[in-house]
Design brief:
about 325 residues; mainly beta; seven-stranded antiparallel β-sheet; six-stranded antiparallel beta barrel
């Protein structure tokens, strides 16, 4: 059963965060402990007599949760890296780009119902982060990753803000730096290929989390009212006009933060390439299904950028 989680930024990998924030989401975690039943040569035919504890780490996951402007940045910190901040209207534009060794996070959660126990895991890293959206559905994110082996802690108490999830319909799209009104649904997913790494240091937990290669996968469904995008696929073109191959900005206009601003969540793939495209005529209207990747963009110095306008200063 999923539950909410408290998240804190670590100043040093594996050292508990100094402050924690409650994040409403569908969080779950599993302890992976490789206990060993050793084979022993003793008198007789039996081979197994004793067991020892083995290497241990946690795998955690956040599934299909709403995007809150004042908490989404904690996952972005570990999926991308520390943001740069611009003050706008007494609030903050937090801009996240990929760094090689992102900030790690401490996680605290509590088993719901029945027997209640709280747990804590340090050195949390994001291995997968994705955003999904549909014009007739919802705007959600998912994240998963690793952490050092959990420890038991005393019962935790959550504290909630008044922020609400971003609405999916409040979106505007730039396609090759031009206004675009054909996007029906899709997803943008980040993979970082993180894995636990052990050394002999008198601990079951990994000594560090390895740093893997980054990829950004893009899946899009478009209203097929013209063949422009299909032609781009056939010519193997890369979208990158003014470094805005694809930019999607969601604004919750029904909420005011600062003086006159609203929460914003924006994804920019400065350069994007289509690998496959398929015309789907099986529904009421023809659709174009595109799969591709965000390509490293030297001007933006990243393959994907995420900006969060929020009352939360994620650099603090």
């Amino acid at each position: 059963m999923a539950t909410a989680v408290k998240v804190g930024k670590e100043g040093t990998h594996g050292t508990v965060a100094s402050t924690f924030t409650s994040v409403p989401c569908n969080f779950s975690s599993v302890l992976r402990q490789a206990n060993k039943v050793l084979e022993e040569d003793r008198q007789g035919q039996d081979r197994h007599f004793q067991m020892v504890k083995g290497q241990a780490y946690n795998e955690w996951e956040v599934s299909d949760s709403g995007i809150y402007h004042d908490t989404i940045g904690f996952w972005l910190y570990s999926a991308f890296g520390a943001p740069t901040k611009t003050v706008v209207d007494t609030i903050f534009d937090n801009s996240f780009k990929f760094t090689d060794d992102p900030t790690s996070i401490s996680l605290q959660w509590q088993q719901p119902r029945r027997y209640t126990q709280a747990y804590q895991a340090l050195y949390g890293v994001v291995d997968q982060f994705g955003v999904s959206f549909s014009a007739e559905g919802e705007l959600t994110y998912s994240a998963s990753g690793l952490a050092m082996a959990e420890t038991e802690i005393t019962t935790i108490t959550h504290s909630w803000s008044t922020a609400r999830p971003m609405p999916v319909w409040g979106a505007t799209v730039l396609w090759n730096n031009g206004a675009f009104t054909k996007l029906v649904s899709g997803s943008i997913s980040v993979s970082r290929n993180r894995k636990p790494f052990w050394v002999l240091n008198n601990s079951q937990s990994p000594g560090s989390m390895n740093i893997g290669a980054r990829t950004v996968e893009v899946e899009l469904v478009l209203d097929f009212v013209a063949k422009t995008e299909y032609d781009s696929f056939k010519t193997a073109s890369i979208l990158s006009t003014s470094n805005k191959g694809l930019q999607i900005k969601w604004v919750d206009a029904g909420v005011t933060i600062g003086t006159t601003s609203s929460p914003e969540f924006e994804l920019t793939a400065g350069s994007m390439a289509y690998e496959t495209a398929e015309i789907d005529t099986g529904g009421d209207l023809p659709l174009l299904k595109i799969n591709g990747k965000a390509v490293y963009n030297a001007t933006n110095a990243t393959s994907l950028e995420c900006r969060v306008r929020s009352s939360k200063d994620y650099t603090a």
